[in-house]
Amino acid sequence: MKLLSAILLKGLESNLQCTDVIDGNSGEAPKEKFIKFKPPLYRQRYQFVKDIVDQHEPKKVADLGCGDTSLIRLLKVYPCIEELVGVDIDEDKLRWRGDQLSPFLGDFLKPRDLDLTITLYHGSAVERDSRLLGFDLITCIELIEHLDSGDLARFPEVVFGYMSPAMVVISTPNSEFNPLFPTETLRDSDHKFEWNRMQFQTWALYAASHYGYSVEFTGVGEPPAGAESVGYCTQIGIFRKNEGKVTEASVSEQCQERAYKAVFTASYPSLQQERFLRLVLVNEVSRQVESLRLKHLRKLKEEEERMLGVKPPEVDSDFPAFGPVFTEAEKARIENSPKPFVLGTKFLVPLQRLMAYPKLCRICPSEDMMRSLIDDCVCLSSDASAVVVDLHDYYDYLFDF
Ligand code: SAM
Prior knowledge:
Layout: H1 2-12, H2 15-24, H3 41-56, E1 60-64, H4 70-75, E2 83-88, H5 91-98, H6 105-109, E3 116-122, E4 137-141, H7 149-163, E5 167-173, H8 197-211, E6 213-220, E7 234-241, H9 248-253, E8 261-268, H10 274-307, H11 328-335, E9 341-343, E10 346-350, H12 351-355, H13 358-363, H14 367-374, E11 386-390
The chain binds S-adenosylmethionine.
């Protein structure tokens, strides 16, 4: 692998050589020198990763060479991801935007279903750190072209051989596209090389076969009409590990190695944490009980008005037009569950009725669990089968009850 990288770099380090490829076809390429991508190319690359996440729903994702953590900020909203890691050799970049990865007020008001921890490490993608083992997806977006020949030679061994995630996405500039830009030099002064498609694919296929991966090539940044032969502006390799996911056992077999320094870590509130589950559940139970109580009072008022000969408004009072929309099956489940009832001055809503509402059932899958979680915060009937509230409360006059 080292030999291959050295050959690729030695012979083809200069972008000018790559430019020769396009020069040979310059008659076919348009002379347009101001290519503008819509959406911008960096967003297309992020979108590409987001599509991969949508498709494969990885739990653990690491972004090597994460820079200012823009991609991590986009990925943190994905409900499937439980662990997000960013690694960069430039500590200042991590510190600059890292704080924006902390949970906001909204994350506490509407906690995620699953836990999420985000960690940023200062370190190099070519160093071994056992905290990067067992990942489902590792992305290296516009990273490899920043590696010198020594680091590039180490990269496959560390990323594919050691970290060994189920999937790796590597993007890098396609030098065949460069002649379409105003200046035909490297795209960034820190780039150590820019490869044409043949160079990238040769390197990628060798790494894939050596470490037991398959690789598929694609890209983002369509060439303009007439220059299709140059390929995408950004070339991308999607590597899939042949035997699938790494098992926990094989991860724990690896000895603990620590090369990275954690510079930021955040844990997001989630319904897996009891205090947030309780908070959300009590809030939703109270909201549902209040909605049923008001509905009951509305029905009483309508009956009273009917007796007095007042024509009632035509509304489907069980399932009003506003609020959650239920499927027919959900409506049937709610209607077939025990109904709320009145005992003296109290209004009682059976827990079984509450469990029939899809949102509550999703938050809390069993009646016993609901009972134990809300017990401290709401009033339950003596047999603990129903939530009890006053039939009338101080604010009812607002609704003319
Ligand atoms: N991936 C980000 C994106 O697409 O927005 C940033 C890409 S930026 C062009 C390249 C990043 O790789 C820089 O933030 C740089 O500090 C980082 N980098 C360079 N060499 C690295 C190495 N050996 N290990 C980790 N990060 C490295």
